[in-house]
Amino acid sequence: MAEGRQGDIRVKLPASGKRFDVLLAGYYGFGNLGDELLASGAIDFLERAGIRRERMAILSKHPQESARALGIEAFGRGLASASLNRALSASRSLFIAGGGIFQDSSSVRSCFYYWALVRKALRASCRATAVSQSIGPLFTALGRAMTKDALSRCAYLSVRDITSLELVRTLGLDADLCPDIVMALDVPRLAPAEHGDILINVRRAKDPKIAESVILAARACSACGMRVKGIALSEEDESEFERHFASGNLPLCEVTLVKNRDDFVRASEGAFAAIGMRLHFGVLSLLRGLKLAMAPYDPKVADFAEKWDALCPGFACGQSNSDIMKVLTKTLFEDKKQPDHDKAAQALEVAFNKAVSRALEDI
After folding, report:
1. What phi and psi, each to the nearest 5 degrees, are found at residue 231?
2. What confidence tens digit (pLDDT) does each residue in 202-231 have?
3. Strand 2-6 relative to strand 9-13, pairing
4. Which of 85, 186, 263, 343 is 20 to 30 Å apart from 208, CA to CA?
5. Do 174 and 213 lie in a common domain?
6. 358: how many CB neighbours lie within 10 A of its CB?
7. Would you list the DSSP string of 326-362?
């Protein structure tokens, strides 16, 4: 068995000569900006850990689009597909990188998919790791059992929020804590401003009152003469905006479908504040330097909002616009912590170095 150097990690190159060191897995290729940013960020950190791009591959719903966008080989993700089997057989390790995929809030299908994927990987002599994950919510015994089984078989596990770390420990497991991968994205900051456009983001949620807080805030801002701009991170978000426009709940406004970091940078020119629901809408807004209020629809967003003092107040339909603006203004303008890009990048480098080392050692 030959040996080779990749960055600071000494790895053994197997005689079988597997084509890829790392096969990335996540909710990739579905047109959701947050997940695509996670894939791009994971590739960057794997390169820093010494893995060359030609030694990486990714599982995607749309492999050709992912290959073109990311510059690495891509395979179909269907559990019964020959493409997935080829990818696993050709890979030394499976990296489940970023995202909140071990959860059963809508059904256990996501837990089942990644549990089955880990089991298939191990049968193909492809060691599994999970990096910068959100775990839960897990409402069902089956979801908890599959999540515990999958994560217990990972050579390395890190999570991106305290709630996930606590849940992992209730499952009898442990994990490192690291930032969300997108927190290390290089996003140019806007100059501080006290006025400008208000960016809003809505997404589908089980509890309609969560989106209602964003909508009432947007209506109050619009009534006070501020320009409101919609930011969609997926086609699903666009549909939610259209639904709220059609019902008359949300004043008509421009909506931009953001497909990459540069789209967000352009769409946020002239903005000074952001109010929304999706985690990566909040992360990008925070990195951009916008005043931020988040209406959490699940624990990972709640943890993020609490950490950055960005929890959006709940508003009632009967509240006047002036009362809403008083409360909202206090939330947006109070002194807030600022993200440290370098610190996030350093923490993620540590996590990815550990993951690569444990995934590839002695293979």
Report:
1. -120, 115
2. 999 988 889 999 999 999 999 999 999 999
3. antiparallel
4. 263
5. no
6. 16
7. HHHHHHHHS------HHHHHHHHHHHHHHHHHHHHTT
CB of 21 closer than 8 Å to CB of 4: no
Torsion region of 324: left, alpha or beta (phi above 0 gives left; psi -120 to 50 gives alpha): alpha
CB-based contact 58:28 (threshold 8 Å):
yes
Number of domains present in the structure of the chain? 2
| The two structure tokens encoding residue 184 | 């290390």
Band of pLDDT at residue 16, cut at 50, 70 and 90? low
pLDDT for the residue numbered 334: 75
Same domain, 71 and 116: yes
User: Of the candidates 102, 114, 103, which has an alpha carbon nearest to the alpha carbon of residue 24?
Assistant: 114
Can you tell me the mean pLDDT for 133-155?
97
What does the alpha-carbon distance between residue 304 and residue 231 come to, in Å, rounded to a whole number?
19
* Main-chain phi, psi angles of 59, to 5 degrees: -95, 135
Pairing of the two strands 157-159 and 176-177 = parallel
Residue 158 C-alpha from the chain's centroid: 14
Q: 6 is in which domain, residue-wise?
A: 2-184+342-360
Q: How far apart are CA 305 and CA 123, in angstroms?
A: 40
CB count, 10 Å around CB of 288? 20
CA atoms 33, 38, 44, 46: torsion sign: negative
